[in-house]
Automatic annotation (TrEMBL):
<keyword id="KW-0472">Membrane</keyword>
<feature type="domain" description="Mce/MlaD">
    <location>
        <begin position="38"/>
        <end position="115"/>
    </location>
</feature>
<feature type="transmembrane region" description="Helical">
    <location>
        <begin position="7"/>
        <end position="26"/>
    </location>
</feature>
<dbReference type="InterPro" id="IPR030970">
    <property type="entry name" value="ABC_MlaD"/>
</dbReference>
<dbReference type="InterPro" id="IPR003399">
    <property type="entry name" value="Mce/MlaD"/>
</dbReference>
<keyword id="KW-0812">Transmembrane</keyword>
<protein>
    <submittedName>
        <fullName>Mammalian cell entry related domain protein</fullName>
    </submittedName>
</protein>
<keyword id="KW-1133">Transmembrane helix</keyword>
<dbReference type="InterPro" id="IPR052336">
    <property type="entry name" value="MlaD_Phospholipid_Transporter"/>
</dbReference>
<dbReference type="Pfam" id="PF02470">
    <property type="entry name" value="MlaD"/>
</dbReference>
<dbReference type="GO" id="GO:0015914">
    <property type="term" value="P:phospholipid transport"/>
</dbReference>
Length: 148
């Protein structure tokens, strides 16, 4: 039986440790490297306050993707969300995207209400119908100052 020098054994141990750390970082960090199982669509909103990148996208209460990017379109003065959706999800052009809150003061997420018989939205397409988040502070201030 061949004996390995200490340096070789330590090198192999360190290499295995680094591979385990990289694997766990990718799995626990929900990093989607080299994955072809998602496609992107965009949606424009008047207000996406409180919504974060990596926020879930749900349809009928089931997670179907996540918010990949949030940008500001200076021409239209709207927030543009880039949504990463699972390939198995087929949206039509009459689908509605809305920003919702989990519970009373919970995290924000994007809810997709499926359409009916419209044309399919391809990868890179746009969800036309959107509903912005309801701002609790605005509602309370309108009530308090009598502008309901």
């Amino acid at each position: 039986m061949k004996k390995y020098p200490k340096e070789t054994a330590v090198g192999i141990f360190v290499l295995i440790g680094i591979l385990v750390i990289v694997y766990m970082s990718v799995k626990l960090g929900d990093v989607h490297m080299f994955s072809e199982d998602h496609y992107h669509v965009t949606a424009s909103f008047n207000d996406v306050s409180g919504l974060r990148v990596k926020a879930p996208v749900e349809m009928m209460g089931v997670p179907i993707g996540y918010v990949d990017d949030i940008q500001l379109d200076l021409k239209t003065q709207k927030a543009v969300l880039v949504l990463s959706l699972e390939n198995r999800i087929e949206l039509t052009d009459d689908a509605i995207a809305s920003v919702k809150t989990s519970g009373l003061i919970g995290d924000k997420y994007v809810k997709i209400t499926p359409g009916g018989v419209g044309d399919p939205i391809e990868a890179g397409g746009v969800i036309i119908e959107t509903e912005s988040a309801i701002d609790i502070e605005d509602l309370i201030s309108k009530y308090v100052f009598g502008k309901v």
